[in-house]
Specification:
Layout: H1 17-40, H2 47-73, H3 81-111, H4 119-193, H5 195-215, E1 221-222, H6 223-241, E2 245-250, E3 259-260, H7 264-275, E4 284-293, E5 296-304, H8 317-330, E6 335-340, E7 345-353
């Protein structure tokens, strides 16, 4: 009886360290149990018992190993369950018969004991070997299926991760041009009104582009880096909206360390300006808050205006993109919600699991 390690490929026939250890321990355990049972049955612990047990130990190792080679060479483990079970049973019966023949023959040669070949005793011993090899086979195949299941699970997870990676890269590649286009529009609006402010806006935009390049293909960045980008973006918009845009930022003490998806906060800030302040002659105050609540990062952006459920499709590409990125990166614990805080304000809330930057 042994817990066996099936090779990674059928061509690789080398015995693994785990296989050798399990074979030795398994058969040694069986022999130890057999010795204890013989002692409880008052069988003398003489040379005959010692040789018999050692013979069973060696034969068990050799025959079970031969059985394993048959399984590997004939690729039984690649078969369906319906085809494997008959081979599983037949193989166990064959190995039990081979063990019985060798063991009985060896005992008769060594001890010249006629009792060893009595029919009743042979049947009793044969039944015991059948149970033993069925148990060996069961452990072998159970381990194999468990191992294959884990490998398949890992393969599926890697495949899923690769798909998610491609989707995230696609979303990021869509988001960057979208953001840059909107920022350029803001600067273009300043060119005729105030060339000086337009020049300052271009400087801010260059800072943003530099940050984007440094972010590269990162899935998550420190919130402090995202906040710098948001402030640069707000600076561009402040040149355009002037007194109409007021900004309040309240950041949790831990916010410089936790990680966020790049451009995520900027997207909801931009949405608040585009769908709120931009439509109000007097503008208003845009508030950005961050906090940590029960292991979740909570980021809130409040802006003047009213959110209409029937017009939610008009909230833009950026929020759809953000929701999808949150889903791919964090799964169920993450969320993005928009609702009316009161009759004159809209609040956008993002929640996702807390992850810290250890660097």
């Amino acid at each position: 009886m042994a817990l066996l390690l099936y090779p990674h490929t059928f061509e690789a026939m080398k015995m693994s360290k785990l296989y050798v250890i399990c074979q030795l321990l398994g058969w040694a355990t069986y022999i130890s149990i057999a010795f204890i049972l013989n002692q409880l049955s008052n069988v003398p612990a003489g040379p005959e018992l010692t040789v018999s047990l050692w013979s069973a130990f060696v034969l068990g190792l050799l025959i079970s190993h031969a059985y394993r080679e048959i399984i590997i060479r004939n690729r039984w483990l690649e078969l369906s369950i319906s085809k494997m079970i008959p081979r599983f049973i037949l193989g166990s019966l064959t190995m039990a018969l081979a063990f019985q023949l060798f063991y009985s023959g060896l005992s008769f040669i060594l001890f010249q004991n006629s009792k060893r070949i009595e029919f009743g005793l042979l049947v009793q011993e044969f039944a015991g070997w059948i149970v033993l090899f069925l148990l060996w086979s069961l452990i072998y195949f159970f381990y194999h299926f468990f191992k294959n299941y884990k490998q398949e699970e890992i393969k599926n997870l890697r495949w899923e991760a690769a798909i998610n990676e491609m989707e995230l890269n696609k979303l990021k590649s869509q988001l960057n041009p979208h953001f840059i286009f909107n920022a350029m529009n803001s600067i273009r609006a300043l060119v005729d009104e105030s060339p000086k402010k337009a020049k300052m806006g271009i400087t801010q935009l260059s800072n943003i582009l530099r940050s984007n390049l440094l972010m590269g293909r990162q899935k998550l960045i420190p919130f402090s880096d995202e906040l710098k980008l948001v402030k640069d973006y707000l600076a561009i918009e402040s040149y355009r909206y002037e007194e109409r845009l007021k900004v309040e930022i309240h950041i949790d003490e831990q916010s410089s360390n936790f990680l966020v998806p790049p451009l995520m906060v900027q997207t909801i800030v931009e949405n608040g300006i585009k769908h709120g302040i931009a439509h109000l002659p007097k503008g208003g105050t845009l508030s950005l808050k961050s906090m940590v609540v029960e292991g979740l990062v909570v980021i809130e952006v409040t802006n003047p205006g009213q959110y209409h459920e029937e017009k939610k499709a008009e909230t833009g590409f950026g929020l759809v993109n953000t929701r999808e990125r949150l889903r791919l990166l964090f799964g169920a614990p993450s969320s993005l919600t928009i609702k009316n805080l009161n009759k004159s304000e809209v609040i956008t809330t993002i929640k996702f699991p807390l992850k810290f930057n250890d660097l």
